[in-house]
Amino acid sequence: MSNVIHVVLVEWRDDVSADAQERVREAARAMVGRIPGILRLDEGPSVSPEGLEQGFEWGLVITFDSEEARDGYLPHPVHRVLAEQIGAGAERVVVFDLPSAG
């Protein structure tokens, strides 16, 4: 079974404060070590010089050790807290999962 890369892109509503965005970042980082199967977690604003973000301002990339680990993460209470925080402040969200040979 290959690893799974879980990508989340968020465009924040205009009224979402920097503090609220930082709380989301903290909640994302808090998943490491608390949700089984997370091999790596990266999050932050785009640093691309291309300017092709189409309004998306923040990204989260999680590498799971298996599809089962990704599936277990979705209903996990620690993930639910993060999902609720994102949902409360997001204008748009995109989630995209892909297989990884690594």
Task: Please provide a brief summary of the model.
This protein is an alpha+beta fold. Helices cover 31% and strands 34% of the residues. It is built from three helices and four strands; from the N terminus they run E-H-E-E-H-H-E.
Structural key phrases:
102 residues; alpha+beta; Alpha-Beta Plaits; four-stranded antiparallel sheet
What is the averaged pLDDT score?
96
Q: Tell me, what's the shape?
A: globular
Structural class: alpha+beta
> Under CATH, the topology is which?
Alpha-Beta Plaits
* Total domain units: 1
Order of helices and strands: EHEEHHE
**Strand line-up across the major sheet:** 2-3-1-4
Tell me about the largest β-sheet: 4 strands, antiparallel
Write down the Rg.
Answer: 14 Å
CATH architecture: 2-Layer Sandwich
N-end to C-end Cα span = 10 Å
Strand content: 25-35%
**How many individual β-strands?**
4
- Quick one: CATH class? Alpha Beta
Spans where pLDDT lies below 50 across 5 or more residues = none
Proportion of residues in helical segments: 25-40%
Polypeptide structure, described:
Strands 2-3-1-4 form a four-stranded antiparallel beta sheet. It is globular, with a radius of gyration of 14 Å. The chain is 31% helix and 34% strand. It is built from three helices and four strands; from the N terminus they run βαββααβ. It has one domain: Alpha-Beta Plaits (2-Layer Sandwich), CATH 3.30.70.100. It has 102 residues and is α+β, with helices and mostly antiparallel strands. 15% of the residues are buried.
